[in-house]
Amino acid sequence: MESGNYVSWVNGDAETLEPASLDRMAESGAENESVMANHSVALEETKESDSVDSCELPEVRENGSEEKDEASEKDLSDSASTDNTLEDSSEFTGRPIIVGSKGEEPVSPFRVASEGVAAHRDEDITAESWRAHWKHVFVLSEAGKPIYSRYGNEEALSSTMGVMMALVSFVQTGDNIIRSIYSDDHKVVFVQQGPLVLVSVSRTLQSEQQLCQELLYVYYQIISMLTQTSITRIFERKKNYDLRRLLAGSEKILDSLLNLLDSDPSFLLGAVQCLPLSSSLRESLSQTLQKATTSNLIFSILIAKNQLVTVVQEKAVIEDTRLDPVDLHLLLNLIGASSAFQAGEIWTPICLPKFNPNGYFYAYISYLDPECTVCLLLLSTDKEAFYAVSDCKRRIEESMRTQNSLQAISAGLESHSYSASQVGVTDLRHFMYKALDIPENHKQLTQFTSPEIEAPYCSEGERERLFDLYRYLHSRIHSSMRPLKLIYHVAEKETLLAWVTSKFELYTCFSPLVTKAMAITAITKLLRWIKREEDRLFIRYPPKYSTIPNPAKGPRGSKGGAEQTDNGFLSVL
């Protein structure tokens, strides 16, 4: 395209326009043409959105009197009736079910999360330091109302978000959807999910697909607090509703998620990392969780420092679906973002967007050791089951104490996983291995394993550089234009090789003088080592249990009768 020309999309077709033509377009107010000066804009055809399935949402008990919203706000209350009617059944003024330790005042994790929100909330958006950030993330409504900004105050950015929404709307007039805008050093990616628009403005080398995935994680985290049905109904009734009222106090949770997305390979790979343990210890822990069940208990999850120890699922549930890594990532981020979960026993509603974006589970969260490294997470569909689930925790804790399981887990944590040198492959510095050969009937979480990052990647800058190299290889492997199966890449200080098959996805880092033939030979040895150690590195056969469900409850919500609705995250209202 010649200098001075622009690109216009008319019903999806590109044509080159002279500047004089642009002036005529501006005068005539053409509605179906999108003009992006000196940028390229990727568009996709719009599709009709699927209707939201009706689903029962849980009732949350109110604690104390609350000041009622004005009449116009009452119209925003959500309905849980299974026929998907719009009758109001509750107010968005409830409080979450938070149960502290005996004799202590209950503490809301979301109130604590809102305390000490990072100083970047008050950044001056006109300052050079604000513009210098490598990646900005914005969330806004279809009306252009600001909802969240990673850096700076949302109110101060209202005009900026208004411009973003204007771009989205302008392209929509031509029956198109704006996906991205590219300039010399910036990439702007748009993702629209229902009434929410999420935007990433990045100077990183991440691909458009990777940035889209990060925005979806932000969307899923919001859904985990409010549910998709609730958000849809809110904006159906009031287009310009300020969703920050319902998300107040959750900024730190979203901040924490974005920090993890920039550093944790679990999100890049879409998999869960297991704590390396002997198969006998993991099996013993699984049996302990299997024996401590109650009606409507769906998932029992044991984690240690953001690594999965074991997970047990209800038989009837895994016949229909599985726990998705995305849902577990959101749960781990929620727990790690607030120190309030260390206060005692927490009982709170939580939505798992990939499992069911329109309903709630009730999560029981409790740490089992004084150092708050081993956490038990029990998910039930019965909002009244706190004491029954708490008794399950007591039985699990007693059994683990008898078997000295906590000490064994602590020993596994103190050993710092394992090092690449243990593999016995010369010049191997680091690797990430994601298992793909999981039988469908096992309904198992997708898992990966990776050793500790060691020299020469000791500094934060070097670790970030290594992660950026992995991101680059991942973008080439999963490119929507020309995906590759094998990549040999020579970087400035190292050599990398990525390989994907039907059974695994592997990313390896070697010293700089390793040739392609040497790397492939080394990978063969690495795969043999992983095969020998797979019982220690992965959960191969997910344990199951059976419970006696309450006929009125189920993992997907009841089919009869309507219950009141509440998102359970409204402690700051």
TrEMBL record:
Domain of life where this protein originates: Eukaryota
Biased composition annotated in UniProt, kind: Polar residues: 564-573
Biased composition (Basic and acidic residues): 58-77
Cellular component terms (Gene Ontology): Mon1-Ccz1 complex
Domain FUZ/MON1/HPS1 second Longin: 296-396
Domain spans labelled FUZ/MON1/HPS1 first Longin: 135-257
Family: Belongs to the MON1/SAND family.
UniProt name for this protein: Vacuolar fusion protein MON1 homolog
Protein source organism: Latimeria chalumnae (Coelacanth)
Lineage, opening ranks: Eukaryota, Metazoa, Chordata, Craniata, Vertebrata
